[in-house]
Amino acid sequence: MTHSIRNIANILIMVLVISISSMQTSAQTVSCALRVLHTFSAFDIRAASGSTTKGSITLGYGIAGIANVEFSKHFAMQGEIIYSSSTHTFQEEDAERQISVKYIHIPILFVLNTGTSDPVNIHLEAGPQFGLNVGNSMTLTGNNLSTQGAVLAVRSTDIGIAYGIGMDVGIDPLNLLRLTLGFRGVAGLTSMGDTSDNLSPNTYYVLSAASRDTYSGYIGLSLGF
């Protein structure tokens, strides 16, 4: 699985680099940015009894590297590489289950700007997002633990639709260095759990078939060239 994840990651990064390179021929400005994200997400799990345990909204974190290619002061395309990590806690009768997940996401976005040459620019963005699961773990603590074995199986890839709104504030006279902050949401299109394998007796998949929606606030700096 690790080998396949690396192959998929290499392919996605190559597509991103080639796309940005080809767009630069007609672009006016290219900018790079670094952002820090606080993420909010939730998903449901299955208990040993077969019932669904609702997940509460959990705070995580992320770091993003961004390349933005402007075709005019009102339209741009943007590619990102985002690393995110979150830990989710579920209460099951007298036991507590913690599930940690880590992802690398690559959104490719269409961006509409009020005016990138203005001191303050408001932008709307939307586009597909491709994800790679790069790590997960599960722990269970408490009394009266079930004798059934919970299996944490996370899909190695996921697909979603990213969308958001943000604001860029020029720091220098030419507005090439900007403070950027905003909101980002992702609607998941694929199920989070992988239930493709046959399980042995007295075991069950802990993840439900539902997808995971994520919301985040971010702040960062961008530099135009």
Strand and helix map with partners:
Blueprint: H1 2-23, E1 29-42, E2 45-46, E3 52-53, E4 58-70, E5 75-92, E6 95-113, E7 120-142, E8 149-151, E9 157-170, E10 177-188, E11 203-205, E12 213-224
Parallel strand pairs: 8-11
Antiparallel strand pairs: 1-4, 1-12, 2-3, 4-5, 5-6, 6-7, 7-9, 9-10, 10-12
| CATH level 3 topology | Porin
Strand order across the largest sheet: 1-4-5-6-7-9-10-12
- The termini sit apart by 39 Å
Do you know the CATH architecture?
Beta Barrel
**CATH level-1 class:** Mainly Beta
- Arithmetic mean pLDDT: 84
N-to-C order of helices and strands: HEEEEEEEEEEEE
Shape: elongated
Total helical elements:
1
**Tally of DSSP β-strands:** 12
**Count of domain modules:** 1
Query: What is the oligomeric state here?
Result: single chain
At a glance:
It is built from 1 helix and 12 strands, in the order αββββββββββββ.
Commentary on this structure:
It contains one helix and twelve strands, in the order H-E-E-E-E-E-E-E-E-E-E-E-E. The model has no long low-confidence stretch (mean pLDDT 84). The chain has a single domain, classed as Porin, CATH 2.40.160.20. The chain is elongated and about 65 Å long. The protein is mostly beta strands and 225 residues long.
Essential attributes:
225 residues, Porin
